[in-house]
Amino acid sequence: MYPDHAPHVPAQRAVEVHQPTPNPPAVATPAPVVPMQPGTVPAVASIVMPDGRVVTGYAIEPARPEPVTAKPAVSRAAVNVALGGVGFLAVCGGLLLLTSFIAALTAFITQLIILAAVIFGGWIAVQLFSTSGHQGAGTTVNIHKAVIKRNHFNR
């Protein structure tokens, strides 16, 4: 990918080093004393910071949230009883569905057994009462041809 015959020279860059310059120490000037009556807040407030800087600004009252209506406290016992009741109802509903499913399955299997018995019983009845295998000693009367068969005698 790279040719082998090309000479490799590392890149050289000029590096500048920046040294931080310290700030001159702040000279603490005392805030002017403003005569005021006790219990009043001045329109402009001045605060001396720990490093000696003086910050002056307007005093702002903190925003007060609207009072929240008190919610009735619900005891843990009431919550546990309610959750227990919901769980109990869920278990009862599941057992009811399981019982219904088992009853329906039992009825279905019973119907299949009865259907098999009817079909098998019908097949046995056809085998017993059919006359195709032998000729019985019964009487057959054909009125149209005036043929009477009785005990293998034709008239």
Features:
two-stranded antiparallel ribbon, 1 helix, alpha+beta, elongated
Order of helices and strands: EEHEEE
Unreliable residue runs:
none
**Sheet of most strands:** 3 strands, antiparallel
- Overall geometry comes to elongated
Strand order of the largest sheet: 3-4-5
**Rg, Å, rounded:** 56 Å
The beta-strand count equals 5
Mean pLDDT across all amino acids: 76
Distance between the amino and carboxyl termini:
119 Å
* Class inferred from helices and paired strands: alpha+beta
Report the helical percentage. 25-40%
Oligomerization category of the chains in this entry: single chain
How many separate helices? 1
**Per DSSP, what share of the residues sits in E-state strands of 2 or more residues?**
5-15%
Question: Can you give a write-up of this model?
Answer:
This protein is α+β, with helices and mostly antiparallel strands. The chain is built from one helix and five strands. Strands 3-4-5 form a three-stranded antiparallel sheet, with no helix packed on it. A two-stranded antiparallel sheet has the order 1-2. The mean pLDDT is 76.
Can you describe this structure in just a few lines?
The protein is of the alpha+beta class and 155 residues long. The protein is 35% helix and 13% strand.
Question: Any chance you could write out the topology, listing elements then pairs?
Answer:
Layout: E1 44-48, E2 54-58, H1 76-129, E3 139-142, E4 147-150, E5 153-154
Antiparallel strand pairs: 1-2, 3-4, 4-5
